[in-house]
Amino acid sequence: xxxxxxxxxxxxxxxxxxxxxxxxxxxxxxxxxxxxxxxxxxxxxxxxxxxxxxxxxxxxxxxxxxxxxxxxxxxxxxxxxxxxxxxxxxxxxxxxxxxxxxxxxxxxxxxxxxxxxxxxxxxxxxxxxxxxxxxxxxxxxxxxxxxxxxxxxxxxxxxxxxxxxxxxxxxxxxxxxxxxxxxxxxxxxxxxxxxxxxxxxxxxxxxxxxxxxxxxxxxxxxxxxxxxxxxxxxxxxxxxxxxxxxx
Amino acid sequence: xxxxxxxxxxxxxxxxxxxxxxxxxxxxxxxxxxxxxxxxxxxxxxxxxxxxxxxxxxxxxxxxxxxxxxxxxxxxxxxxxxxxxxxxxxxxxxxxxxxxxxxxxxxxxxxxxxxxxxxxxxxxxxxxxxxxxxxxxxxxxxxxxxxxxxxxxxxxxxxxxxxxxxxxxxxxxxxx
Lengths: 247, 176
Description:
Helix content of chain B: 25-40%
Number of domains of chain A: 1
CATH class of chain B: Alpha Beta
Structural class of chain A: alpha/beta
Strand order of the largest sheet of chain B: 3-2-1-4-5-7-6
CATH architecture of chain B: 3-Layer(aba) Sandwich
Mean pLDDT of chain B: 92
Strand content of chain B: 25-35%
Distance between the termini of chain A: 24 Å
Largest sheet of chain B: 7 strands, mixed
Structural class of chain B: alpha/beta
Order of helices and strands of chain B: HHEHEHEEEHEE
Radius of gyration of chain B: 15 Å
Oligomer: heterodimer
CATH superfamily of chain A: Spore Coat Polysaccharide Biosynthesis Protein SpsA, Chain A
Radius of gyration of chain A: 17 Å
CATH architecture of chain A: Alpha-Beta Complex
């Protein structure tokens, strides 16, 4: 059985985000699955969703360090469940069938590469902690990825001292050591930026050939003038329509 | 394939006065306070100037080692010396003997918590998302790196060329 996961904490995203993500998977994944939500507030979540408490493994570190480090706990807390697994950020829109993506062989956890960013910028700014990686949609299987969790446990003091975000930690310590795989181009794009640098960078445009659309707005500080910072619940037109269709 | 011309601005960073003075001050300190035959430059950045002066000072280049995790930097350094390593000095398991010079302590976890021996440590007080450890005093360098002997310390102000930002650098030579 396949298992899907998401995290919901605080009040940035409502329960609609979780319920619609669940329903979008029911539509776009053609096999049976369990859906788990790790949360501090399960109010409003539909009853088919399995509720878990948020991981507390790294609670002693401030939230500003390896922000969303909870994600790496999936590799430990659910390692005994066999089969295909994936986690999803809440601010994404699944547009098409993703069954084949989940069913692929995932001998390493598979992360998103931000193909909408200049592929040389992270090379040129390596020491400035620029990351081209994104952890909004990650797939793995069985106990794959446990080594990443173990590495973080072994290096937690150094890692939480050094890295402000989970994606930066994964890029500098896991991607550098070839411990993760990446989704190919043509699967994920960014609503607020576009799909591929440098020729396909039109924000807000529907790209029907892509499977997943991200809405993450964490690039605000260094956004180019034409980029938008619209959250999924603030969107209109095709995005709003598709999101609401998952009610 | 990335055109090397794209990297020109990376090389320009290396030629900044603030960076050159950092190299010169640390090598001068090394000459005055240490007689180790082995020298390790951690987070070396481009090593051309280091090598030029280390040779002049009479160091054998086979005893000088350069560590940097930036591939662009490494690919340039390897043209000058085989003793350069593409490593993250904090997270990779490395055995490093001899004097360790670390000029960018503001970017890293304190190396004194990982390695022992002789150190020359520098860092500045810049605060930014990519800076995990702004250095705001000589005492901070001593305490963080658990130095139990201090031979020399210094601090100086710099007006950074490209954004006119005023930074204060702190330097300590010591032993753990």
